[in-house]
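Appendix B, record 7
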Amino acid sequence: MSQLTDQELNATIREVLKRAVADPNLRQLAVRDGKAAIAKVTDKTLAPGLSIRFVDNYGKSNKTVVIPDPVGHPEQLTEEELEAVAGGCGASNCGVTSEIA
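Structure tokens (predicted):
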């Protein structure tokens, strides 16, 4: 059996989640054994050392919030990049067209 790529893993996780909404047995399996739930959806394997944990948020008293992975120190944007992100022109020929009337 081959291993799941990152893209395949993401698609497989989405498929487990989709099916677990309607299938209480798969939902219970996912909470109990994430790898087994993944195996129900694909014949590919997880990378060695990778663990998958599904958490059931069902009910008023159960809410889980996952903190995203930490980010490194992103490089500072230049003024031009900031303008482009903020919706400004950010180009030296801002507003100039090459059309001839």
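Remarks on this record: Residues 34 and 79 are 46 Å apart (CA to CA). Residues 1-56 form one domain.
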